[in-house]
UniProtKB/TrEMBL annotation:
Protein known as: Endoglucanase
Entry superkingdom: Bacteria
Residues annotated as domain Cellulase Ig-like: 6-81
Broad class of enzyme this protein falls into: hydrolase
Enzyme nomenclature, EC number: 3.2.1.4
Start and end residues of each Glycoside hydrolase family domain: 94-532
One Gene Ontology molecular-function label: cellulase activity
Active site per the UniProt annotation: D511, E520
Family assignment from sequence similarity: Belongs to the glycosyl hydrolase 9 (cellulase E) family.
Length: 537
């Protein structure tokens, strides 16, 4: 079968002064940019040569139209085929950014979401019962609050810490992107809303710490997942605190130490509480140097977030505690852990080493006493150079390799975007950010499926995410601003197995509510997208 000609664009838009390009499938030649309102051809350009792209299973060419420097709404035409509409303007992502941030409000657990803040996506307070300590059932703890993890209603410490870390970093590195109210009920026109929203999660995280030992319970969930159309307030099963884990405790210590810095100028009492909690957890880590990884207890079958390796979590915690307190003991610990071999530039929920590296680099940039700095900074730039090289060889100009279209591949896409932007900061080279922007274009429709992986944004956007409130609420549209997991060639659910067998990796996605391994949503897929998009707000 000869594939039809099609034209893929970022369906939201292109920043006026950045490189602009579309990807053409099965077409090489001239193309026109047409202004939507007048129907006038504003520019004609030529595509590059056709190349075969195995990851998407198509033949593609690249059509740049950077010379278009007039704001407006446009579409592209080639050989009587048309692209989706898109904007060209100074700041095309402002609304998207607000919506990606507002998504965290929609993930809130334990509070009513009234119409004033939630529009048509209201629901009543949920999961308000105290949590039962699984290993000690007579012990019950208040675990109200926080964000649901994903399309399910579990609350898990490790991914929660990743999500907050991304939002903190976005706020610290791109503060001007956070000047507007989201708005949320706590808006006080003093504290940036993003920090108020993060505090909602942090207050819950604090409840997950066992204050006797400093260890942190791995997660709070029902025994099983509820049905797909169950609204949060109707999910009434008992809530269990799974056992303490080293990975949860390490991430907790790290994010609390980071929080202590971030809130210092807004609420010192809270900042001190966070630091004390971090130190208590650090004590647990010191007292428990060798711990085996977390496994679901027998009766609990919700998300496991299992991870055998806790050295990266300890490395992250040491870096943040060093950055916050300036104390040499944490520096020494960090330097010792830095000698070990584990991924130092990864920002996934299992491999959090990248956060430790970023914390350390930013500390040294500010304080200028470089030691291991040089090595880590060079490593980061080398890693970013690799990402650029891979992106230049990809049909859609992103850095994922064939075997990286895994569960939550869009997180990989955005995490790589984050690393590229950190590399820009460290090196001052703008070529890194232009590659990061290509990753945003992919997320918003410039991909082989011509689909925007953010609900509510783009003309051909995901409509049926695996997200319980969106399935159960009888509102036609899903909650907006949710980043979807994306193509996963592992075909790890029945729906994917049935519909996607034999597809090239980048096509292993289906916009069906049953496909949790391709079409679910999570807080930690939203958060790196907030970070990356903040660069252009
Ligand atoms: O890292 C390996 C890679 O080396 C290998 O080549 C590839 C081949 O399949 O697999 C990669 O591992 C995958 C891993 O995610 C990567 O992070 C596993 O196959 C895959 O099963 C695993 O999926 C995780 C999934 O839970 C199942 O455990 C997702 O990362 C994780 O985001 C997801 O999280 C769930 C929670 O459990 C429950 N709440 C919803 C949430 C999102 O779906
Ligand atoms: O809905 C669940 C989703 O949030 C998880 O990511 C996924 C993997 O752990 O599991 C989903 O639940 C499914 C369960 O694992 C198997 N039966 C069907 C459930 C979806 O309705
Ligand atoms: Zn809830």
């Amino acid at each position: 079968m000869i594939e039809k000609i099609s034209i893929k664009v970022n369906q939201v838009g292109y920043p006026l002064h950045e490189r602009k390009a579309a990807v053409f499938v099965n077409y090489q030649g001239s193309f026109e940019v047409i202004e939507e309102e007048s129907g006038k051809v504003v520019y004609s350009f030529e595509t590059g040569p056709l190349v075969s792209d195995r990851i998407s299973g198509s033949t593609v060419s690249y059509g740049e139209f950077s010379r278009l420097t007039q704001t407006g709404r446009y579409y592209i035409r080639a050989n009587e085929e048309f692209s989706s509409r898109f904007e060209v303007k100074e700041k095309p992502f402002d609304e998207l950014h607000q919506s990606l941030l507002k998504a965290f409000y929609f993930y809130r657990c334990g509070a009513d979401l009234p119409e004033e803040f939630a529009g048509e996506w209201t629901h009543k307070a949920c999961h308000t019962k105290p949590g039962i300590v699984y290993s000690e059932p007579s012990r019950k703890l208040d675990c109200n609050g926080g964000w649901h993890d994903a399309g399910d209603y579990g609350k898990y410490v490790v991914p929660g810490a990743k999500a907050v870390a991304d939002l903190f970093l976005a706020y610290e590195l791109f503060p001007t992107a956070f000047q507007n109210a989201i708005p949320i009920p706590e808006t006080d026109n003093k504290t940036p809303d993003v920090l108020l929203e993060c505090r909602y999660e942090l207050e819950w995280l604090l409840k997950m710490q066992d204050t006797h030992t400093g260890g942190v319970f791995h997660k709070l969930t029902t025994l099983e997942f509820p049905g797909l159309d169950v609204m949060p307030e109707n999910d009434l099963g008992d809530l269990y605190l799974s056992p303490i884990s080293a990975t949860a405790t390490g991430c907790f210590a790290a994010i609390m130490a980071h929080a202590a810095r971030v809130y210092q100028s807004y609420d010192q009492v809270f900042a001190n509480r966070c630091l004390e909690a971090a130190l208590l957890s650090w004590g647990w880590l010191q007292a428990n140097p060798k711990v085996s990884g977390f496994n679901n207890p027998k009766e609990i079958v919700t998300g496991e977030y299992g991870d055998e390796v806790d050295i990266d979590e300890r490395y992250w915690a040491a870096a943040e505690l060093y950055r916050t307190t300036g104390q040499d003991q944490f520096h020494q610990e960090f330097l010792m852990l830095a000698k070990e071999n584990f991924p130092k530039y990864s920002l996934g929920w299992a491999d959090v080493g990248g956060y430790g590296t970023i914390a350390y680099l930013l500390h040294e940039i500010e304080n200028g006493n470089c030691e291991v700095y040089q090595e880590l900074a060079e490593g980061l730039l080398k890693h970013a150079d690799e990402l650029v090289k891979k992106s230049n060889n990809d049909g859609y100009f992103i850095s994922l390799q064939e075997n990286e279209y895994i569960w939550g591949s869009n997180m990989e896409v955005m995490n790589n975007g984050m690393i590229l932007l950190i590399a820009e900061l460290v090196s001052g080279k703008s070529s890194y950010s232009s590659c990061a922007l290509d990753h945003v274009h992919y997320l918003l429709g410039r991909n082989v499926l011509d689909i925007s992986y953010v609900t509510g944004h783009g003309s051909k956007r995901v409509l049926h995410p695996h997200h319980r409130p969106s399935v159960g609420d009888h509102v036609a549209d899903p909650i907006p601003g949710l980043v979807i997991g994306g193509p996963n060639s592992g075909l790890q659910d029945e729906c994917a197995k049935e519909h996607l067998k034999g597809m090239p990796p980048a096509r292993c996605f289906i916009d069906h509510q049953d496909s949790y391994s391709t079409n679910e949503v999570t807080i930690y897929w939203n958060s790196p997208a907030v970070f990356v998009v903040s660069r252009w707000v």
